Amino acid sequence: MTASSLSLALDVRSATPMYLQVVQGLRTLIEQHAISEGAALPGERELAGQLGVSRVTVRQALRVLEEQGLVSRRHGSGTFVSPRRIVQPLSVLTGFSEDMRSRGLTPGGHVLSLERTRPSPQEAMNLTLGPAEEVVRLQRLRTADHEPLALETSTMPGRLLGTVGPGDVENTSLYAMLRARGFTPARAIQRLSARAADTEAARLLHVEMGSALLATERVTWDERGQVLEFARALYRGDRYDFIAELKH
């Protein structure tokens, strides 16, 4: 099946409104990759004719799919299937590189800045360091299959990493580097909040200024209770979902 020729099993006798049946049918095709990412859907009139429903029904269905992040509607161009959202469980401690590889994506990390310096008050507090101790602060633009997804600033006690240069951390997992030095990330506390993209974040992440971003702050400890990293990141809100399992 192609995006230009769609067929759905719709039931006029069902109690489910017709536009929701169209939503469910198109969502299934998108999630099962029967319609590829970036594909253009037929126009409202054509899609209504293919499905045997009214244009109002199609318009309602597309509005819901857009709200769910499954399609994007571009004025003057049409409706397109959005890239798959990345669902990140909060119950598992993984780094960006490991997480992307587990999804079959190739992680990247363009270094924006790397410095060995004194910690800020916030960094010193989270890393339990004195103000005169040294830290390594690394800011990277994280990508998956060359698509920018996150801006990440990682600050670590300088004694943990030794001497590192931009080439050492360009496309490298920091957690893997720490493990290689005998420091295994074991647990973390992470805080999430909402943020609007400023000019710089919008430029680097290829989003509109003011777009919704997911902001995280994470402190990571090793098995001995030693603080390994204080990390702050901005994730694209149009590409990421963070989920948590709740039990009674």
Automatic annotation (TrEMBL):
GO molecular function: DNA binding; DNA-binding transcription factor activity
GO annotation, biological process: negative regulation of DNA-templated transcription
Keyword Transcription regulation found: yes
Protein keywords: DNA-binding, Transcription, Transcription regulation
InterPro entries found in the cross-reference section: Bact_HTH_transcr_reg (IPR050679), Chorismate_lyase_/UTRA_dom_sf (IPR028978), Tscrpt_reg_HTH_GntR (IPR000524), UTRA (IPR011663), WH-like_DNA-bd_sf (IPR036388), WH_DNA-bd_sf (IPR036390)
Domain HTH gntR-type: 16-84
Pfam families xrefs: GntR (PF00392), UTRA (PF07702)
PANTHER family: MANNOSYL-D-GLYCERATE TRANSPORT/METABOLISM SYSTEM REPRESSOR MNGR-RELATED, MANNOSYL-D-GLYCERATE TRANSPORT_METABOLISM SYSTEM REPRESSOR MNGR-RELATED
Protein name: Transcriptional regulator
